[in-house]
Structure formats: C-alpha cells, structure tokens
Amino acid sequence: MAGIAVFALEGALAAIEGNLDFFGVMVLSFATALGGGVIRDLLINATPPIAIRDWRYSAVAFAAGGTGFLFYDTAAHIPSGLLLTLDAAGLALFAVAGTEKALDYKIPPFIAMLMGTITGAGGGTVRDMFLNQVPMVLRADVYATAALAGAAVVVGARKLRLPGAVASILGGVVCFLLRMISVWRHWNLPRVGLP
Amino acid sequence: MAGIAVFALEGALAAIEGNLDFFGVMVLSFATALGGGVIRDLLINATPPIAIRDWRYSAVAFAAGGTGFLFYDTAAHIPSGLLLTLDAAGLALFAVAGTEKALDYKIPPFIAMLMGTITGAGGGTVRDMFLNQVPMVLRADVYATAALAGAAVVVGARKLRLPGAVASILGGVVCFLLRMISVWRHWNLPRVGLP
Amino acid sequence: MAGIAVFALEGALAAIEGNLDFFGVMVLSFATALGGGVIRDLLINATPPIAIRDWRYSAVAFAAGGTGFLFYDTAAHIPSGLLLTLDAAGLALFAVAGTEKALDYKIPPFIAMLMGTITGAGGGTVRDMFLNQVPMVLRADVYATAALAGAAVVVGARKLRLPGAVASILGGVVCFLLRMISVWRHWNLPRVGLP
After folding, report:
1. In chain A, positions 99-118, which contact chain C (CB-CB < 8 Å)?
2. To the nearest whole angstrom, how far is the Cα of B27 from the nearest Cα of chain A?
C-alpha cells in the first residue's frame, strides 16, 4: 500500500506538470500506481484484477493523488533523493510481488520475470503514454532492468529451493540496490548510437 | 445502439480531420464507440467482451463510421449543438449501463462507478491516443466527471433501494444535465496553475 | 515462429531508429511480434495469452530483437525488398492463424476477421504508439486491409465447406499477394481529402 501511495503521488505530480485537470490527475495517479498490476493480472488471467476487485487499492491511489493535487507546492519540494529512494523501494516491492503472483498462477518462470517487470515499470509506461511521451523506461536509466534483475533473483532463489521469504528479500534488495546505484552512478543501458 | 452510432460518427470525424485513411476511419469509429465497453468488460471479467461476442455492435459502429466517411461534407455541417446534445445523451446511456453491468458482475460499488466512467469516456480516450494527442478528458471540460456523477447517482439510488429503473433514469438525467450545463457555462475542473 | 522473428527484428530496428536503449529494443521486439496475438487472446478469452503461457514465443522475439541490436549495421542493410516480402509473409501467416483461432473459440465469423486483422497488424500499431507516432496502418499503405482480405477469404472458404487447409492457403495467398501488389503499385486506401 505504501508503494501504491508513492507511485500515485509521482503520477499526480507528472499530471500536474503536464497541465492536466483534477480528473486527469486522478487518472494518472490510478494508472501509475495500479496500471502495471492491472496489466499483469489481465495477462496471467487473475481476473478481475485485484485493483478492480478490491476498492482499497484505488482508494489509496486516489488519496495520494488528491493529496499531491491539494498540496502541490509542498509535494513539489520533496527532496528528489527522498522521492527516488521511496520510488526504488516501491519498484522493488512491486517487482517481487508481481513475480511471485505470476509464479502462483503457474506462469513459466521466464515469463514470470517479465510479469514482475511489468508490475514495477508498467504503470510509469502507461502514465507516459497518457502524457503523449515515449515511455522513459524505454529510453533511459536502469529502471525496468532493475525490476527484471530483482525478478530474476526471486526466480533463481526459488529454483535453488531457498525459502520463499528469503527469495523475496534477496530479490527486493537486488532491485533496490541496483536502482539506487544506477541513479548515483548515472548508469544507462547500451544503445546503438546512430550518427 | 443509438449511442454507439453517435460515438462512432464522432470517431470517424476525428479520424478524417486527422487525415487517416478509410481503414483508420473504421478503426477510430470502432474504438470510440466500443473501446470503453471493451476495456470495462476485460476489467470486470465479462469476457469475451460483448462487442466481440455479438457482431451487431461493431456493425453499427462501422455503418455509422462509413456514413461519416462517405458523407463527410454533410456530417461536418451537423450543428455542433446537436452533436453535443446527442453525445451527452450517449455519455449518459453508456455511464449508466456500464455501472449497472459492473454491479451485476459483483464489482464493489466504488469501482463500479469507475467502470461506468470508463464505459462513457474510455472510447474517446483511446481515440485521442491513436491520434497521438493527450486525451481531452484528462485536460479540459466536465466530461468524464459528468459520467462519474451519473454513475454515483446510480450507485446511491440503489443503496437507497430505489427501483432499478428509477436509479437508471436519475443517473442518466444527472449525467446528461451536468454535461449540458457545463458546456453551456464553459465549466472546467480545477487545476494547479503552474507559472 | 519465423513470422515472430521477422516482426521482432522490424520492431528492434524501429526501436533503434527511435534511439531507445537495449531494454526499449527488447520491449518493442516483443510488442511488435507478439502484441497483436496477445490482444487477440485477451479479446477472445483465450487466457492467459499463448505468448504468456509458452515461454518459447518471447524467447524467439527476444533472440531476433537482440540479434538486430548486436548486428544493427548488418540488419539495417537487409534489402528493403527482402524485408517487405518476409513481412508480407508474416502478415499472411498471422492473419490466417488469428482468424482460425478466433473461429475455434466460437467468435462470430465477422468478428473473427477483425481478430485476424488485429493479430497481423496489432503489433505494429502498439510499436508505433510506444514510439509516440500515429500508427502507420491507420494512415497509409494497404497493410491491415490485406490482412482483413485474407481473413475474409478464410471465413468465406470455410462457409463454402472447403477443407481447412485449403481455406488457410487461399487466405494466406490472397493476403500476401494483395500486400505485395499494393507495395509495388503504391496503392493507398481512399481518404477524405481535406483542404
């Protein structure tokens, strides 16, 4: 739930900076926080998606987004380091939980890793598409890749028959640290440099 | 079905003004008229969506879109007041029907309101994204909010144990009137004014 | 599987030309090759989609996309005629297979034709939307229309009680030839010419 609130707040700030109105802010709060999980649930056939079946998910997202709208001046001054850290923690939580849910639904491990990645990075992708931008995760930073690494650790640890809690913690730590280090060191993924 | 035709015609006009070809006009007719309902059905697990299970929905959408294509000069001269009124009526129908369908599928009332809103406003959102624009409903006007208000009235009236037909009519009237008044008075939702 | 590889390679090239990073190249390879089939499977309720249930589909897409990334200089010099021909063959395969799968799932024939079209042309549409462009299939060329024609032939041949294999081959040949001729003759669909 804390992860949902952080992602929703970030969605609200992006919406406000995109000059959307209050309804747009609410939509982007929902989409950023819950879009990844909704897509994952549709793909693994866990329907209706949990964010549709249980009203508390969207209530948290709307509350966080509404807070960002009402107190934008304060929210815009949250230190970026704090927001990045909270976001990395949310990413780790989402990636691990998404991978485990896909495994529970008998999705092959390789695909379960992709589902964890979508859970973590899908919401931001939907947000960027609503704002008519090429999604940031496709262009720069080590973000979805950190989610993928965490998901891979979860899958690998389970293959090694480590206890589930250990797999979760290991995966979450790897995702979080990889994300934080990559921000700190300004890492980017390789690309083909066109002239 | 009348609502589908109006929405499809509006999708066709937007497609033509976006310089799409005949296939693009047909896709936008379908997406504008039926996209909201398809997304709702996927989310509430009423699958396959009714617009996929029953060919008459898309036939109406394509017929209206094709008419808009063939007789663009006439269609483009439909008085904007008439088109706005028909669109508001379609929005009211879609919002009420979408909310009721979600309730029938045991979706929590709060989420059912969102499903009614998506049914009404989702098609236009998809249309705008195909045309590479930030969706209008996120930016201006009281459109999705009117759908949400109508959906809330349906949910509220049912909670008060009013007969289903009364709940539907009340919800539809509220949505329609709120939409018409907001156009007439040039209402917009609040936004955070960035310098 | 050959069709998946061709579409994935085209997605990778588009991603590289859009200056995406390695993760973006992988996402567009997957989306271009498998996006149409995933959307079809969600719509016809064949869930989880085959590309999620069976890891080999995405493995082929990632392998082809990764090859395009590593050997971009070579891939970018594949003669455009060869790529167009392979793409037309992939389109024909996807359109026929998508139509038949929809019919197997008891989707009405008219809608099954649309599902075949989405299978063939949906991936490229998703790719263009990720790259923040109005999808090419909505604007120019005879592409989705060729898929639709092939799908219609499959449906028609089955109505005439021709053997399934004959229907498939006829549909595939019609789609392939229509696509190739339309490229050669620079055919476009009609549009309403706005001043």
Report:
1. 105, 107-108, 110-111, 114-115
2. 19
